[in-house]
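User: what does the whole thing look like in 3D?
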Amino acid sequence: MIGTRPILEVKDLVVEYASADGPVRAVDRVSFEVGPGEFLGIVGESGCGKSTLLFAIARLLSPPAEIVSGEVRFEGSDMVSLDEEELRSVRWRRYSVVMQSAMNALNPVLTIGAQLKDAILAHESMPSRKLRMRSEEVLRLVGIDPIHLNSYPHQLSGGMRQRSMIAMALVFEPELVIMDEPTSALDVVAQRSLMLQIKELQKKIGFAAIFVTHDMSLVSHFSDRLAVMYAGQVMEIGSTRKVFADPKHPYSVGLMASFPSIRGPLQPLTGIPGSPPDLAHPPGGCRFHPRCPRVMTECRTIEPPFYGRDGVQIRCLLYADGA
Amino acid sequence: MGATACRSAASCMPMALEHPALPVEEPAPTPAGVEPIVKTVDLTRHFRVGGPFSGRQLHAADEVNLSIGANEIVALVGESGSGKSTVARLLARVYRPTAGEILYHGRSLRSMRTHRERLAYAGRVPMVFQDPYGSLSPVYRVSHGVMRALKLHRRELSGQQRIQEAERILKSVGLTPPREFLKKYPYELSGGQRQRIGFAQALASRPELILADEPVSMLDVSVRIGVLNLMADLRRKEGISFLYITHDIASARYVADRLVVMYAGKIAEQGPVEDVLGNPKHPYTQLLLSAVPDPRVPVSLPASSEVAEPPRVIDPGEGCRFRWRCPYAIERCSVETPQLRPLRPAHEAACHVAK
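Assistant: Here's the predicted 3D structure for the full assembly of 678 residues, as structure tokens:
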């Protein structure tokens, strides 16, 4: 961790969706911290609750989703209890969010400049000259020619749209940028170039980042720490290098074995048999036990707490004995 | 989500997982002299853009020469907008070519005039779609699509035989017990299972070649490999060829024998998978390979980020379409369109500079 005091602390966060068959728990007692300037990657399959978690942290959840219990402390103040008015002073100025699909997040009938202006004026009154200068500045920051302030989203490429979303998130130089799969709509080359750019900006401006993705290999080179989520829970969390070099939770091991490589000898892969559970009826005990290749009898009944192994926290009974 | 049927691992363990297929064991290139199943000759498709009077043409596919032999998996890779799906749709006769030919066992598709011939072609060269959530009708049971294909393409089968055949097909795509899966509705299935249904529908017409357009890109990471293994299995056991369209080179390497790289509507490079990956000749292929994230190799961050610009495919004119992004571009690249030329055995690239 880079700083001493974490800027974001999430403690036992629980988010539920109300449904006709009772509450569906999409985020189940998730805890982690993010230090200043740190890059936390969160990986997981679709439906594992990773986007819900981000929305909960950013206080963007809307019914039927609801934070049931737990804490989200952003620079010491509890975000869960803030009302809309108080949120307004924090949101976008101190932390911002980059959404998954820029195509849906940008308004197709407004120019990029008009949308930047909207975002700025919603949080601060600014004379139009200064506003223009600030807009040009952030666009340059993400490598887009300021001439595109007058462009409409459809005139930009996918990568440029996604970068203009990032520019928008950076207008107030927030301490934390929350990103929900910002590269998933891009092809590999654009994806790589965007990731490099995010990393460069992070170095330059010093914001902390939470980056959610389903593509484990994408964050492998970019995040400081990595959390692996499955069925609403964090299964393994630790330094990215350690988790990649030696994944401990059988689910992380399985995920790692799901990516073919373009280098080295060609190996037959198996992926993970079965499919993720229905969160309305999660399996008892460890949630991964129905798909786990190393399942034991206890796994069906006991829900594992976190166990630590060389700085990595793992929610798995295999690591119950010894340190 | 919505995988209510899959509470226990055993009930939905795909068959392919029990026998991880080794895709390398049977590289089966078409021997010289044997007619490929499908061959395209200067296949071209343009779309008009910018209103009826603009006269501007989007060159989605330009002079694509591609062949897919028996028992062969060919991967067509490229970024979005490179024309790879257009090629698949041309082969599936969703689009008509602007110019050029598609030869099916040496015979031009243009010469197929009767409904019966076209139906037969559709059955022999079916397509599997990208989105398993959108390509299955939610109001019909799984049996509907499979039985419909059987009724349409396998008229010799009696009703009883059709049911047996449907069960056999479901088993071959790893959905067991087949009898129960036939009765399910799509909402009861997970993404991976739905995509297997997509393959089952294609299999019902006894295909020679399945056009698989990004069949795994919408699936969860942990179940993708299962579907790739299924393709390798179907090739090995039933001898079916595949055109596997993807933007993911690593998965292409995993299943395919031959790799075809498209850029801006043209084939940039093609050859045996390992040869192309080991000796990429076209600068675009090199760029593509360097961009693939791989956790197994140590971190290597280039000093400056390369800005990725989309290819210009509207009225591209003469010249190499990659020249705007190419670090090796020479004057000739902007005046003369490079043609594919052989650089290694069975391996060719369209580049003036490559050696």
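In plain terms: The first strand of chain A starts at residue 8 and ends at 17. Chain A touches chain B through 53 residues (CB under 8 Å).
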